[in-house]
Amino acid sequence: MSVSDLLNDTRRRKELGTFFRNCRLRTSPHERERGARRRRLYNGLTRDEVAYRVGISTEYYKDFEQGRVQIARATLVSLMDALQLNDHERRYAVKLATGLVIAPSPPDDDVPAAQQLVLDSLHPHPAYLVNHRMDTLAWNRAACALFGDFGMRSFEQRNIAFTLFAEPFSRLFVVDWAKHAQRAVRQLRADYGQYWDDPRFDELIERLLARSPEFATWWEQHDVGSQAEIDKAFNHPQVGRLVFKQMVYDALDVPGLRIVLYIPLDEATRGTLLELLAKD
Predict the structure, then answer these.
(1) Is the pTM of this model over 0.85?
(2) What is the DSSP letter of 44?
C-alpha cells in the first residue's frame, strides 16, 4: 500500500468512527439501560452500552470510534442495527467501511450534449444539472429566470451549497432557509461518503466551514440523507413568493450527476414564471 493509500485509509476509518460516535450520542437507551444509569451525564449511549449490545469489548469499540481498527462486516451490521441507522445512514457507513467509490468523480466541464437537450426540453420548468459537490454544470433558460443567470457567475458561485451558505441574499430568497440548508448538508455528507477521495470536495467543505458557523455545526453532526421530492418556496426579488415541487433525478449514463427540476405548485406561480420568461 502506498503512503497516499495509507493516509486515505486512515482518514476514512476516522471519518467512519466519528460518524458512529455521533450516531451513538443521539441513540436513546433502552428502559433497562436507563434504569441501570439513573444519573446520565449526557444523552445517548455510552461505549459500554454499545459494546454490550453488539457483543464486542468496550476497548475494541473505542478503537473503532477513534479510527484505529478496520471493523469486520458482520460487526458493522450489528452496530448499524444496535444504533438503529436508517437506510441513508447504512449506505453511507458501508461506503466508508469498505472504501467503496462507486465511480470516478464526474467531470466539472464537458457536459454531455444529451444532458443539455434534456434540460432544454423541460422548459418552461426551471431545471439544472449538478455534480456530487453541488456544482451547477448546465441549466435551462427557465432556471436563469428563477435563480439568475448562471452564466454570469464564477464556477465557485455556481455551487449550490456555497451560494446557500455564503451569500446573505440566499437567507431571504429561500423560504424556510434553515430547513433546506440542513437538507443540503445531509446530501453533501451522503455524497462525501461516496467520493471522500475527491480533493475538490475537501476544498469545498473547507470553504464552507470557514464561511458559515451553521454549516460547521450541521456538518459535524454527520447526518446523512438525500434531497428527494420536496416542496420549496422562494421570495423572488421581482415578483414575490413562488412555490414549487423540487424533484431530483439521476442523470443517465453519468454517475454522480443529477438533474434538479422545479414544477410550479399553483397557477399563480405558473403564470408568474411565464411572465418572467416572456420578459427575458
Answers:
(1) no
(2) S
